[in-house]
Design brief:
133 residues; alpha+beta; three-stranded antiparallel beta sheet; 3 helices; Dup_hybrid_motif
Amino acid sequence: DHPQANLYSLYGHLSPSRWRKESGLVKKRELIAYLGDSHENGGSAENPLVPHLHLGVRAGQRADYSSMGEWRWMAGWIKPCPPDLGWLKPSEIITSQAIPAGGFPDPAAGFLEMWWNELAAAGILIWGGVIKC
């Protein structure tokens, strides 16, 4: 979490067995973790994944978002950097090095309020047999 900017950063597919830093400030060039091996980042022996990193930056603090139920949307799996869910573009934040006065604003509403129409339409299509799951 970066409370002074009302941001938190999310690093995905790091090795849980080789963490170097649990919490606290991260300094430039400081090693915080290693990339997860193919079996640690969602792959398997039958379907290995190349080690890779996901970096996300989101408005608010980690505690502001649910840890269950909304996990796919919390992880930003809908579209790249969905701003209506609080996701920001990491490259713009990093390169500009600018924080608005008072920090970044929180998203306007919760998941169901923002995505109700999309969920309803998807449910109708699935229930009607147009889309097979």
